[in-house]
Amino acid sequence: MKVRHQKPTQEIKLDMTPMIDIVFQLLTFFIMTFKLVTAEGDFNIKMPLAAPREGAIDDQLVPPIKVRLQAGSGGELTGIGMNQRTLGSFQQLHEEILGLVGTDSPAGAEGAEVELDCDYNLRYQYVIEAITAVSGYRDDATGQIVKLVEKIKFAPPKNPPS
To answer: What is this structure's pTM?
Structure first.
């Protein structure tokens, strides 16, 4: 058996430049198309620190201000009520909330809570107007936003009328 000695072959070199280019292009593509998702809402959940005790009433145990929005058969607003009183307009609702909460201290606005009880077939625009009336306003003199009520919740929906 005869063994042939082959001539030393040339070493094959891989050019890494195109591979690095592709990696940078992919990296650029993913960075440009990455979208940060913001949280949908800021939920201020306050858990109790200890078991309930007898004594003075805590400010956080104050019941929410109940706002009732009544709808007609076509979804139009027929009545606004707050804590068993009838109000004529959203402006009057705003003034009542302003009187209850006040704008002197932010702590008063922080502890207040409104519960909206809306009829099943009420149009959405009236719900938004009620939220606008109780949540705050823009001070024309300073241009600042004045917060009234930050905690707004909805009463459980009732069955639609048959």
So the answer is: 0.56
